[in-house]
Amino acid sequence: QVFDDEGKDVTPHPLFHSDPNAVVPRQAKLLASSAYFGATGSGFLSSFSMHQTSGENVSLGSFSRSHLLTSYHFSDVQMRQEEIKEELTKEDLDRRVDIYLTETETIWILDMPSVAVSVESEDAGRVLERNRIYVDICKNRPGNDRFVEKMMQTINGAAKNKEVQCDKIIVEDKGMMATSWDLYDSFNVLEIKPTSKAEGSRATTGKSSKPLTTTEHDQTMSVSSDRGSTTSSITISESAVLARIHEEEECHSEAILTSENFQQDLFFMERILMENIFQPKLAAYRQFPVLIDPDLLSDASGTVAAVKEANQKEHDKEKKDKEEQKETFLDPSILSDVNKTLEEIVPPRLERLWSYICDLTAGHSVSSVAWSKVNPDLLAVGYGAFDFKEQKKGLACCWSLKNPAWPERIFQCEHGVTALDFSMARPNLLAVGMYNGSVAIYNIQSRNDAALLDSSKSSNKHTGPIWQLRWVEQDRGATGDGKKERLMCISADGRITEWLIQKRLDCTDLMKIKRTGSEKKKLPGEKERKSEAVISQQAAGMCFDFHPKDANFYLAGTEEGHIHKCSCSCNEQFLETYRGHKGPVYKVAWNPFSTDMFLSCSADWSIILWHQDSQTPMLTFSSTTAFVHDVMWFPKSAFVFAAANESRVEIWDLSVSILNPVISCFASPREKFTSVLFATNTDCLLVGDSKGAVSVFELQNLAAPNSNQV
């Protein structure tokens, strides 16, 4: 018996059922042979049953043709098989017999549901709805508390390797060359008729209009006389000649492209094109009148004349109308005074001219900018991130005013550039400070981008980022030989150093900035608090600025929010300490006109004006809730300074207002301003941002500075 998974009996039934009341038949001759059933046939036939493999039961009536009737006596001793032959009458043959075919129950041996459904099927809509619900569930899964991720361990099936051996695949390269004559002959092969030997000889000696074959044209050229006495062949290899000409042209063009004269010509041509493109912007930068192309004026002369004529007619008509009216108007002198007043009350603003940016600098944050001390058109820009998590390779680029589209020099740095400055005694030297604490000096006259000197081998190098460096002229010698230029740095490791430029870079410490506690008054009855444990005894230095008249004194801003006044002659203690900021001090700047005053900006959203003789802030400026990264005095006025917040750049004029800036320029939604720098020879401001652009703005309608007021 055979049972399915549900316990149903699915055993196949035989088509023939023996009648126990039937007559015992005789042994059939067909099954009498012992060779067919074997010597011991009782064991085999005891389990033998006749059934139809297709599972269709056939009901038979009394109709029967010459067939076999088998009788079994289930005995282990004997077995009889007899054949009964029935004779059918004519009535039996003519009688109608009904045969019914029915299906048995289906046995499922392997059931694999389909993963694809036809679009035209009935279940297509239901399947599409289930897929849409599943996609919605996958979208809503992130951040949903209803979904929990669990892990389970499964048993991996044993891997089975099967190797097949086959014959080695033989690869063979073949090449051929086809000329234009080959293509012509192949295309016209059907038009060419076969000729006999005699016709071929006549075609050789006489004139023929038949096209030359490939062999005759490409390999040899036969020249024969009418008599056919002499024949000479000249071998021509056109492919070799063409290849040689192509090689000579390539070598010649390569020599032209790599020649110094061609490179210099391209350099001059690029300068000319850039000056033509940026001519109106450069003229506005240098405060020159903007010139208009005379060709454009000549082309538009007719249009201009027509416009002038129309304006003149309108003016005459208005004049007549005014004469006809009897009403009196204001006196012309009063109108002129009003016009002058309107011109005076036009608010100052920043007009953007262009931006120093290219594909190489896009995506890098501008960390510092510096003008060349000798060439006012040469600008150095450092690119590097201030945050530790955003660190990547840095850049130091030198931009020229004559080509705002691409830098003149590009120096690749392994770490982010945080500070840079040009030398005054040797204008070709550019000092660069990096985030890892190293200092490098580059020669901008050379096209080699390798550093001239590097502090990587110095045993006394900085261990923190260098936030500011500057070339300072100092006179420390007692012999009076003159001032000597020195390179100063301030770092996050709490050291202010002076670098000695010899065969290699080495430094000495000017000051180690020690931590100072906040001065809080003790209330009556209050117990003394225990001092907090500090990780380091030194405070991280953020910025410095040397006094414009006496370079032996300088200010140093720290991460604690304090500003220390120090002297190069004393490296043990501070001269003064100014406490007013609640966050790191990002920049300090002496006033170039009133040398007793200085500005400081901080991460506490404020800008403070100080007097060096007072430890109390004189004025505090705070216009927005954003970090103030940079501040700089205007070189033409003692009242004007610029500040770079994260969200906008501001121009303050203390002679106009001490509460609000006179100009505010907002940044784009996804960029932040990081640095500001005034131009030395014009009324322009440079602003660096976090996207790698240094934008040039023109200061318009700003009040003229009064040199008598300080």
Q: Could you explain the architecture of this structure?
A:
This protein has about 700 residues and is of the alpha+beta class. It has a domain of about 80 residues: Beta Barrel (Thrombin, subunit H), CATH 2.40.10. Helix content is about 20%, strand content about 25%. The strands form eight sheets. Strands 3-30-29-28 form a four-stranded antiparallel beta sheet, with helices on one face. The chain has a four-stranded antiparallel beta sheet with strand order 4-5-6-7, with no helix packed on it. It is elongated and about 145 Å long. About 15% of the residues have low confidence. One of its GO terms (cellular component) is axonemal dynein complex. It is found in: Cytoplasm, Cytoskeleton, Flagellum axoneme; Dynein axonemal particle. Pfam families: WD40 (PF00400).
Which segments are poorly predicted (pLDDT under 50) over 5 or more consecutive residues?
24-79, 195-236, 324-332
Please state the average pLDDT score.
77
> Helicity range of the residues?
10-25%
Determine the N-to-C terminus distance.
Answer: 117 Å
- The radius of gyration over CA amounts to 51 Å
Say what oligomer this is. Answer: single chain
How many E-type strands? Answer: 30
